[in-house]
Design brief:
- Helix content is 17%, strand content 32%.
- By secondary structure, the chain is of the alpha+beta class.
- It is elongated, with a radius of gyration of 22 Å.
- The two termini are 34 Å apart.
- About 2% of the residues have low confidence.
Length: 342
């Protein structure tokens, strides 16, 4: 083993703040929406997930990229799939599959890329105690020797430029900005970076619900918007309720249970089956008669759905369900992936 610490390590993390820090001592970089990875170069290369599990099993085409790293070098970054110059998380998720034949086929159809944003070790020298500005400078020098599929994420000390990136780079698949202290060391598994993310609100129709594992309260509500065909399109879910509210919501929704709510057209999405990430979690859901409207906020779109769970803002008894349409959604325009990484 040529690395200065024993893998796996737990990557440093960020906490969300509504207002980003500014002023002296901060550095900013785009936040990518991919799989967090730690890449190890040496005689025995590694590509670990944020939980320390191997990613090479699912991304075999990245092994030659790891061979580019000098022996004893460890890089923090993201695995991405880019299609039409935009990152695509749905296709990235498809790469996690148990069948080797499918893994190989997807590797050829949707090859992954690596975006580096931190350097934890170089040629056997640990850099975790070095300030971020030093780690980044050394990563820039290392990056000049790395070829495709490696990319370096841009970085700036100018808050005004970071603000422009916040708005312009969303169209490339960036879902915000990561803010790092210039003099900060690398703290494994600590949330000491700042995450500045987009937040928008939208009025949605409740089309169904999932029952909580306790059985006497709602687990999550399923949200829909009407598409151009006039069908209710499943777009995501919301689950951030107190226990008392969960019981009251379940009681309310049980009174409007029906046989079908989502679906009905070729362009309409319905709640899916069991998640490949949460194999023990029940995906069964109960449809309700569309009519109850809620305002939720979300941080990112992925195709025709919310990328993450939404946050409940308020009930909208004054809003007709028919007015909750897909055209409320903001589709960002601006730079593509190739422009962001230069």
């Amino acid at each position: 083993m040529t690395w200065p610490f024993t893998p796996p390590i737990k990557p440093m993390k960020a906490r969300v703040r509504a207002n980003p820090p500014s002023g002296e001592g901060w550095m900013y970089e785009p936040k990518w929406d991919g799989f967090r990875m730690v890449a190890y170069g040496g005689e025995e290369v590694r590509l670990d997930s944020r939980n320390g599990k191997t990613l090479l099993r699912y991304f075999p085409e990245l092994r030659p990229a790891l061979d580019q790293l000098p022996r004893g070098t460890v890089v923090d970054g993201e695995v991405l799939v880019v299609v039409e110059d935009v990152t695509n998380f749905d296709l990235l998720q498809m790469r996690i599959h148990p069948a080797q034949s499918r893994v190989e086929r997807l590797a050829a159809e949707y090859p992954a890329r690596l975006v580096a944003f931190d350097l934890l070790a170089e040629r056997g020298e640990s850099l975790v105690e070095a300030p971020y500005s030093t780690r980044r400078a050394r990563l820039d020098r290392l990056g000049s020797d790395l070829d495709e599929p490696w990319h370096l994420t841009p970085v700036t000390r100018e808050f005004e430029r970071a603000t422009r990136w916040f708005h312009r780079y969303e169209s490339a698949g960036c879902d915000g900005i990561i803010c790092k202290r210039e003099d900060g060391p690398y703290r494994q598994d600590k949330r000491e970076w700042i995450k500045w993310k987009h937040r928008r609100s939208v009025d949605c129709v409740i089309g169904g619900y999932r029952v909580h594992k306790d059985g006497d309260k709602v687990g999550s509500i399923l949200l829909g918007l009407y598409n151009t065909e006039g069908n209710l399109h499943f777009i995501g879910h919301c689950s951030g309720f107190s226990n008392r509210d969960r019981a009251a919501i379940l009681s309310m929704l049980e009174q409007i249970r029906t046989e079908e709510s989502f679906g009905g057209g070729d362009q309409t999405r319905a709640p899916g089956a069991q998640s490949r990430w949460s194999t023990q979690k029940s995906m069964e859901w109960v449809p309700v008669t569309p009519g109850v409207v809620v305002e939720v906020s979300y941080d990112q779109l992925q195709g025709g759905r919310f990328r993450h769970a939404t946050r409940f803002e308020r009930w909208r008894p004054d809003k007709p369900a028919a007015e909750c349409t897909m055209d409320q959604l903001v589709r960002p325009s601006g730079a593509g992936f190739s422009e962001v990484v230069g």
